[in-house]
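anyone seen this seq b4? input:
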Amino acid sequence: MSDALRALTGTAAGHDLALVLAPFALLIVPWPEPRMWPIFAGAFVIHSGYKYLQAMTYARGAYTVVYPVVRGTGPLVTVIAAGWVFGEHFSPGQWGGVGLLLEGIFGLAGWNLVHVRLARETLVAALGLALATGMFVALYTTYDAFGIRATYDPFTFLAWFFLIDSLFMPLVTIPPMMPSAFAPPMTRSRSWRGSS
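predicted toks r here
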């Protein structure tokens, strides 16, 4: 990578350049094989469910409580799914590492759960949503690993997945495109959606 490109990394100008050049990636990578389109559709549904649940979770619970639950559930279910789906098995040391990670993450969530005082009335529902969101993290992690292995060129999966995945947010954030009853709570307010 040239020094000029390195200097743009992480800057607003670098993000703008990436946005302009992103469509050209689709011209560089090979076209997806026909069997990939149902896999892309599955990835879109899974990632959309994850984003929707994540918005619902963060709207209802204290971030310091629900975020660790989301991030802690994902790795546990992912390593279990890796054995079941891909036949990958972990050594006792690797399981020890996963256990240590989970102890830290869920320990943080537990400590915050005891000490947080805001929005206690919605915290139980938020924790249920956080567990469901964590399951979706594991689901998309495992499914994306399957998808990237299903194509001849992993960059084909990545480029097309990011394009297809980007279609979800306009469906949620552009008010006329989604009925209020199905919109995440943050998009239901009058200031966000306009008067109804």
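Residues 43-167 form one domain. The longest helix spans residues 123-150. kinda curious what u guys think
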